[in-house]
Amino acid sequence: MMTNLVLFLNSFLSYLLLVAVFVLVIGVAVFLGIRLRMRANTKEAAIAAENTNSGATNEI
Length: 60
Description:
The protein is mostly helical and 60 residues long. The chain has one helix spanning 2-53. The chain has a domain at 19-50. It is rod-shaped.
C-alpha cells in the first residue's frame, strides 16, 4: 500500500515539475514577445514623427 502512494506521489511531482517548466517557458515567450513589440512600436513611432517633422509631403 505504501509503495503505491510513493509511486503516485513520484508521478504527481514529475508531472507538476513538467507543468512548471511549461509555464516558465510560456512566461518567458510572452515577456519577450511584449518587449519586442514595444520596441517595434517605438521605432515605428519615431519614423512617423520624423516623417511629419521633416515637412515632406506626397502632394504633386
